[in-house]
Amino acid sequence: MTTARIILLFVLAAVAEIGGAWLIWQAVRENKGWIFALLGVVALGAYGFVAALQPDANFGRVLAAYGGVFVAGSLAWGIVIDGFKPTVWDYVGSSVALLGAAIIIFAPASAAAAPE
């Protein structure tokens, strides 16, 4: 159940952060109005709370792993929401980022411990 929780929290964090940034982008770059910016700020705040719910107590590790999820999630958002056409290199880079995230967050407890 922990693995499912970790993945779900990363997905929710990605939707909140990427969605929030997209809403602000729409307000500033596409002149959609300040309500978009306000909703973006709320979504970005929600991202911070969702990220804090991860079971790992190490802020740096959680945020480093989330970086890989953010890369892949941003490309997916662009494809679904903005009609972005990724290249093979976008897919390769996204896969590498996700692999790095998985290595960081799912490392065995003994390997994840800081050296003394």
TrEMBL record:
InterPro entries per UniProt: EmrE-like, UPF0060
UniProt keyword terms in alphabetical order: Cell membrane, Membrane, Transmembrane, Transmembrane helix
Matching Pfam families: UPF0060
Membrane topology: Multi-pass membrane protein
Chief place of localization: membrane
Localization, UniProt: Cell membrane
Membrane spanning residue stretches: 7-28, 34-53, 62-80, 92-114
Keyword DNA repair included in the entry's annotation: no
Similarity section: Belongs to the UPF0060 family.
Protein name: YnfA family protein
Organism: Microbacterium memoriense
